[in-house]
Design goal:
alpha+beta, Maf protein, 8-stranded mixed beta sheet
Length: 197
């Protein structure tokens, strides 16, 4: 394989994948390189279902290998919520700040040892004529009681990493990219790549 489409318009995410696949001599393109708009309704019940749907629908439409990801936050005290609804936890059209505020409100009164959580990233790879494969990466942490840090996005300012003694939002990009759920999934993907393809 010499070319792979990434199912995203996020330039930061594209750059991350470009760096990863450059070592494997694979050229990365994204939805930003297509002339047509492709919208996939993410109506799966799991990260795996959503990632596979994106990869397969886009891959079948353009006829190329496609990598898609779905990610979010799982909080144990909330039975895994916000989960696949992480980006719209406070409702459609709400922003990161509103999502975090809702999360902190839901966890009001919950003690620190009960605030365990993880970021999850599932990667799905569609290659025409082959079964779609998925791989899951996680990053364990604790939901803090208040925000801290200026880096990252999403729930990073309330996601505390005990091993590092910092919030995810206090890690600079290069450091985050070595320990994040996406980095974890990419490392596993690299280990499996030769077996799969």
């Amino acid at each position: 394989m010499s070319e792979l489409f990434i199912a995203t318009k996020n330039k930061g995410k594209v750059a991350e994948f470009e760096t990863f696949f450059a070592e494997m001599k694979i050229e990365v393109k994204s939805l930003l390189d297509l002339n047509e708009e492709i919208d996939v309704v993410e109506d799966g019940l799991t990260f795996e279902e959503n990632a596979m749907k994106k990869a397969e629908e886009i891959g079948k439409k353009i006829g190329f290998p496609v990598l898609a990801d779905d990610s979010g936050l799982e909080v144990d005290a909330l039975d895994g919520a916000p989960g696949i609804y992480s980006a719209r936890y406070a409702g459609e059209g709400k922003n990161d700040e509103e999502n975090m505020n809702k999360l902190l409100e839901e966890l009001s009164g919950v003690e620190k040892d009960q605030r365990t959580a993880r970021f999850v990233c599932v990667l799905a790879i569609y290659i025409p004529g082959k079964p779609t494969k998925t791989i899951r990466g996680t990053c364990e942490g604790i939901i803090a009681k208040e925000q801290k840090g200026e880096y990252g996005f999403g729930y990073d300012p309330v996601f505390y990493l005990p091993e590092h003694g910092k919030m995810m939002a206090e890690l600079e990009k290069t450091e985050k990219n070595t320990i994040s759920h996406r980095a974890n999934a990419l490392i596993k993907l690299k280990e499996q790549w030769a077996n799969w393809f």
